[in-house]
Amino acid sequence: MNRQQRPMAAAAASLPPGKSTGEKDRKSNSFHRLFPLLLLTLYAIASVLRLALSSPFPTSFVQPSASSSTFSAESRQEAESLKTHIPSETHHVQAEEDNPVAAPPPCSALIDGTAASRNEAAAAFVCCDRSHIRSDLCYARGDIRTDSASSSVLVHGMKSAAEAIRPYTRKWDAAITRTIQEISIRPANGSRRACDVRHKGVPALLFSNGGYTGNLYHEFSDGLIPLYVTAQRFRGEVVLVVAEYRPWWLARYRPLLERLTNYKLVDFSRDTRVHCFSEMIVGLRIHGELIIDPWLMPDGHGIRDFQALLLDGYNAVAQSKPSLPAAESPPFLRSLVRSTRREQAGRCSRSRRPRIAVFVRKSCRVLVNLRELVRACRRTGFDVQIIEPKRGTPLDVIHRALAPADAMLAVHGAAVTHFLFMRPSSALIQVVPLGLEKPAEEFYGEPARRLGLEYMAYKITPEESTLSKLYDRRSSVLVNTSVITDRGWQEMKKIYLDKQNVKLNLTRFGKVLAKAYSHVCAVARRIE
Ligand SMILES: *[C@@H]1O[C@H](CO)[C@@H](O)[C@H](O)[C@H]1NC(C)=O
Ligand SMILES: *[C@@H]1O[C@H](CO)[C@@H](O)[C@H](O)[C@H]1NC(C)=O
Ligand SMILES: *[C@@H]1O[C@H](CO)[C@@H](O)[C@H](O)[C@H]1NC(C)=O
């Protein structure tokens, strides 16, 4: 219909020049009289065509009233509640172009807050945006009540069919998505259960804390950064409803979570009370691996804004506990190793001695010659802080250890995620074992550069891999890693992630260390 209308309007606007004004007026008058008729005719044709072509729902029948100039708020509501029947995102957009007054905004705009939801008498309304490869999201408005016993969110007066969603950000990863608790958003039947907790005027954001939660990388990439992406625009005025909630997760990330919500978290499964909301988003937006695309953010925020919030949170913890009780500090932190050439460190910067934080792993991808590595770091001029994180290592301890560091060094693995705690312009050295170039770059290299770190990948040679002791020198495992990595993640994991340790060639590695050192010195001089 749209396409047919526009040329018409264009024709009306560009009447041939040279005619008298009267003639022009008469012409346009008759045109004005004819125009609605034409419109109606075209519309009727278009509706019939549309119906015949695809639309299983009578949505288009609602719109004629909308396209007349005097449609009431009531019919707008009607059109809006029918909006969920429109099956795809493109239809929404088209509908909006057809008539900007009547058409509801696309679901994605409601989720992102780029279009205000018209809160007319809180007409029940649910829509889902399933257009992204990484996650599905749903939006609900109206009288919304949680029903954790049936893993449901009940929306009174919801006219569309129930929606089922697994609110986790790895939709493309079928194996893990299957394990995520499914949430049903459905019409409530019969009498309403009384509200136990009424969240007046504060929307809810429901998401899963399951999946790969427990792995630092995934906690940030699949969880916290998407949470920031989705929740930041509320500036704290949002209630986080967490499915598959884990108490340790709150303990670990409280300093950050407190900056994303002004309210207590709701443990969706164990909290059997009925929580009542008038607006809810289910699911999280995700832009990619450890990244935030400012172009996709309502306020143009990026990963640095996320980092600022993160550091703000953990700085506050550090200030409230000026010194750690002795029992709390080390196992994770070895005592600082001072550089030997003090005079050289002095030349680097008057006020500080460059420090490198070295993350060590215990079971695989171990730095076999750590002792020599530490010596090489000291010779270069670095003070060395060794950190041995374990699953339960409090993040504020790690933050405290990283705050004075100018460079960070880690073998590829989840611990590299700690670079999020490093100041922009500090240096990150990732040691990349054989066969892991791709994940190293995708998961950490690119995100680190985006954060503004001086990123250096140190790709080891076959001689530096302990796999060279297990395989023949000419084996493709050593000389052409794509033979294995092309077979998929499982094969790659079996050999390159799980069976490999690293013995650095310190002659070769020393060059990278020296580069990192001169970088941090240059930065320090710039600051002074
Ligand atoms: C609601 O009630 C109708 C009719 O009694 C039934 O067919 C439908 O399955 C019910 N829906 C839910 C979600 O309980
Ligand atoms: C490495 O192996 C792949 C097959 O997995 C092959 O296509 C490629 O040509 C090999 N490269 C070299 C340098 O041998
Ligand atoms: C270490 O690296 C240097 C420089 O790249 C090289 O000359 C030397 O042979 C390597 N040492 C070993 C033991 O591989």
Description:
It is a single chain. By secondary structure, the protein is α/β, with parallel strands linked by helices. It contains 19 helices and 15 strands. The strands form 2 sheets. Strands 1, 2, 3, 4, 5, 6, 7, 8, 9 and 10 form a 10-stranded mixed sheet that branches. A 5-stranded parallel sheet has the order 12-11-13-14-15, sandwiched between helices. Helix 12 crosses helix 19. The N terminus is likely disordered. The protein binds 2-acetamido-2-deoxy-beta-D-glucopyranose (3 copies).
Brief summary of the model shown:
With 528 residues, this protein is an alpha/beta fold. It is built from 19 helices and 15 strands. The strands form two sheets. Strands 1, 2, 3, 4, 5, 6, 7, 8, 9 and 10 form a ten-stranded mixed beta sheet that branches. A five-stranded parallel beta sheet has the order 12-11-13-14-15, with helices on both faces.
The largest pleated sheet is described as:
10 strands, mixed
Number of contiguous helices = 19
By DSSP, the count of extended strands is: 15
The percent of residues in helical segments reads 40-55%
Strand content: 5-15%
Radius of gyration: 30 Å
User: Judging from the principal axes of the Cα atoms, what is the shape?
Assistant: globular
Q: Helices and strands: which structural class? A: alpha/beta
